[in-house]
Amino acid sequence: MNYKVIYGKNDLVYTGFLALPGKLYQKNELTQDYDTEYKLLHEKHTLSKYFNITPFVVIDKNSQMPVARCMLTYYPEDDVAYFGFFECIGQQEIAEQLLDTVSKKAKKDGKTKLSGPVDASFWIKYRLKINLFDRIPYTGEPYNKNYYYKLLSDCGFVVQNHYTSNIYPIIDMDYYNEKFEKRYEQFLNKGYEIKSPAKKNYPYIMEKVYELIMDLYSDFPAFKYIEKEDFMDIFGSYKYILDYDMVKIAFYKEEVVGFFISVPNYANLPYKLNVRNFFKILQIKNKPDEYVMLYMGVDRRHLGLGNALSNVITMELKNKHVPSIGALVRDGKITQSYASELIRDRYEYVLLEKKL
Questions:
Q1: Domain boundary at 127, 146, 162, which?
Q2: Which residues touch 262 (CB under 8 Å, ≥6 apart)?
Q3: For residue 70, which phi and psi values (nearest 5 degrees)?
Q4: Domain boundary residue among 133, 162, 191?
Q5: Which carries the bigger pLDDT value, residue 12 or residue 277?
Q6: pLDDT tens by residue, 220-236
Q7: Does 351 have pLDDT greater than 80?
Q8: β-strands 80-88, 66-74: how paired?
Q9: Are residues 26 and 158 in the same domain?
Q10: Which residues contact 46 (CB under 8 A, 6 or more apart)?
Q11: Which terminal CB of the chain, N or C, has fewer other CB atoms within 10 Å?
Q12: pLDDT tens digits, residue range 18-76?
């Protein structure tokens, strides 16, 4: 064969691994976070203590250029191996050669299944995009080449979970959602308060969000517990890109019981920070063209509060007069159908698995 698979912790693998995405994607669709990948490869990432990784690269023997890559991640006492950072030129034989090598290693190491794409951690990025490739990636979107789903399916992977991101238009000022409004009034009358946090209170609020997320997201596929200080480190930079009008925190008796976190759609700018992009981010933050609704959670003891939070966000979107994306909701979750009458289209994503 004209290709060879190399793997392990060495500079040749690292160089090819880091170089490949820039060769596959146009600038406006490249979502590689080079700094994160570099730190993971060198075991210097905040989350590196939680797992062991093995990077793989396929090299063209003639040109010595990388043509595919993948990272295998193991967690202690987990018999599932996670594959992520998958990239490949559009040749099935190369994908098969790579994933066959990955599968054999995982099986030899006692793993029973491959699951992914999971880029080392639930907290970094996971899932595979499968439609609407005519649109540039929005902030936080798992983005990949449009042929990856076929490559992976033909290599024996099947769908483990399915997710959607709802695309919402500009909301008319006369739009009225009876369910949202009713829930909002009910919770206000019970003494709840929903408001945007001040930037100076960001650390305190995120600590409370951490406590809710560790409970509410614990049954999500690929979820792994992390310590509070690691969570704060990962999400610390968010305070610079948030539009706090579009962040809502619900309080009951001075306790944080719910949250709704949105960001302006910066496309792929946050993944390649430099002086020029920093100023572009500031411009977008001051006048966003679209919002991405990334995270929502409600304490299990306060059912129905999600509708009240959504009502407040809906009012903000009306006033701002911009469209939005309700991002990355797993099938079966009630938030997937929020304001369903407004949904114009849906992005789709999958998490795949393969038994070894």
A1: 162
A2: 243, 246, 247, 291, 292, 293, 294, 313, 324
A3: -170, 155
A4: 162
A5: 12
A6: 999 999 999 999 999 99
A7: yes
A8: antiparallel
A9: yes
A10: 230, 233, 234
A11: N
A12: 999 999 999 999 999 999 999 999 999 999 999 999 999 999 999 999 999 999 999 99
Crossing angle (nearest 10°) for helices 202-216 and 228-235: 120
- Asked whether 81 and 110 are in contact (CB, 8 A), the reply is no
The amino acid at residue 309 is L
- The CATH number of the domain where 77 resides is what? 3.40.630.30
**Statement to judge: residues 313 and 175 lie in one domain:** yes
Output DSSP code: residue 118. B
- 175, with CB counted inside 10 A (0-12, 13-18, 19+), is middle
Contact between 5 and 56 (Cβ < 8 Å): yes
Is the Cβ–Cβ distance between 303 and 64 less than 8 Å? no
The three-class DSSP label of residue 250 is strand
State the Cα angle at 142 between 97 and 16, rounded to 5°. 40
Q: Which domain holds residue 215?
A: 170-322
- What's the one-letter identity of residue 133? F
- Residues 78 and 11: their CA atoms lie apart, in Å, by 28
CATH code for position 255: 3.40.630
The arithmetic mean of pLDDT across residues 191-218, rounded, is 95
